[in-house]
Write a structure and sequence with these properties.
mainly alpha, 2% strand, 44% helix, 192 residues, 2 domains
Amino acid sequence: MSCFKLPIGLCNDIEKLIQKFGGYKEEIDEKFIGKIGRLCKPKAQGGLGFQDLCKFNDAMLAKRFWQLVTNTDSLLYKVFKSKYFPNGNISYAKPNSGSFAWRSVLRARKVISIGARWRIGDGTQIRIFNDNWLPHECDGKIISPPSIIPRNATVFALIDSGSCWWNSQLIDESFLPFETQKIKDIPLCAIA
């Protein structure tokens, strides 16, 4: 489950087998226990703790993707990098005609991108208008249209190199007020 994206039909079949393994018939399920949604609730909420296998499969693939992002010394990372993204980053790799394992792991990129946020650091790798880097409950992307700042600029352009702090004037002129406040609230470390 952590290497390949399982087809939805297979996940549904396995879930049905899990229901049968519990010794429940469909009529009894509907009357006393409920459908699979109720069976998948955590035990603390009155369910039986069964997993939604499609979501579990996505989570396991996302874990594998995250291991590739964070553990660049692993053999798996080195093999995938040399074959599928030799000149770039796994986050921007193209889902070309690779192995089924590679395409499965790349599908999990979407799961990671929903919740992942960049940490600013020096800001040289974070694209202002394309990457998730704003904190809090929003999706993390800038929604202000590019005006003064080019579309492909990095967050480094927003940092005053003299003070190692945000360039307040540029930020105020370039972004919506709520984004301006969120940007200025992000702490920066000293750039070496």
